[in-house]
Amino acid sequence: MGRKPAVKPQVTVPPSPKNTIEKETRLHNTVLCYDQFQRGRLAPSVVRHAAEFVVSERLKCYTVFTSCSCLTRRVTALSWHPTNNSLLLVGSKGGEFIVCGPTGDRREPEQQRHTLDQGIGPGGSLLSIAFDLTSPSRCYTASLDGTVKEWNIDSGDSKVLLNTGTLERWFCSLNTSQSTGLIVAGDTSGVLTVMSGRDKGILSKHKLHKSKITTTEMCNRTGWLLVTASIDKAVKIWDIRKLKECSPLDSLIHERPVNSAFLSPTGSGRLLTTDQHSQLRIYRTGDWALETLMIHPHRQFQHLTAIKASWHPLCDMVVVGRYPDPALPSFVEGELRTVDIFSAKTGKLMAQLSSPSCKGIMSLNTFDPTGEYLASAMGLCVPIWAFRDPLQIKKSKKLPHDGSSNLGADNDDGDDDTFRPPPPKKIKKREKKGEKK
Question: Which residues cross the membrane (predicted)?
Fold first, then answer.
């Protein structure tokens, strides 16, 4: 049922991390752009381009200022609180469920608030976390043990809402809608369960995919739009009011299984998908035509949390972790495992975040709703990135190296940990006795 795109998509192969990211040749004054836009002299696309430029320049000055490293198994799920950017929920492969996040004080960053669940170990992996948008103190989790639970973040109390009762089938995706008050959960057999957000009762069940549903995404703007992604290589678009017909509005077929599919939070009408090998796709909502195709290394590995690209909350920029692949033409020996940030419209690499202390693969990368903090899932720890004034970075470079790492973006201002010996002093030769001057 896949439909050919109306226009030929832009296929972008990003440059290697060792190459310097292209600098903008046309710099925009944001105040002037806004004034010209208000007067009707500038197209909205120019204003959006200016916003992307400002955000990307700021991202180049992001550094890691705190991290959460209290887990015993690798991180499998991350979710920021929708209204409080000091609360971050973290789930692990062993079922550990903790609340952590920054305090806003860079001098005394907080690493952990409290633990909601110690986990059961093997077989208890938390696969998805979703907040209740109508009640900020409640959230929901989907776990490998076959349950969907409701949690109270303040008290730590939990309640089982769904249970498959078998180890052969479990829930692996979860989402809530504020406009409709619905909760949807997808399982490994391709069945979607729809629940009421009020009484938490099951409203209906529908077989939507042939195999595991990796993502369920509801659009809060329309209320009826539902997007599901699966490892059956399909991303399907649904009208949630007509799920009984089991006939999608459209089906976007990929070359590989799909890890995720997310709608842009800016309301631009774009859909971002991540496959299990090397493709990031941007679709336009409405006609669901393929707008941009980016080649990016993020292949699947058994003992690695699946890499999922996400959106920046303020503009249409894609955030994704890099897993260097020697099989790709763009591979360069020694390239870093960075966090890459792309423009959704052009596919251009706008910024890269790297750190000498973060040498692992950052599978999950999620911004808080304000765009101030970026949380990354890297093995057992969660580094949290934030903006650092370039003037402070330059001053810190002049101080003696104390063993700590200043982390930045793709420039060398924040993470220059290489030793540079001082220039050799000129030694004057002493004249021997008896020699004439």
Answer: none
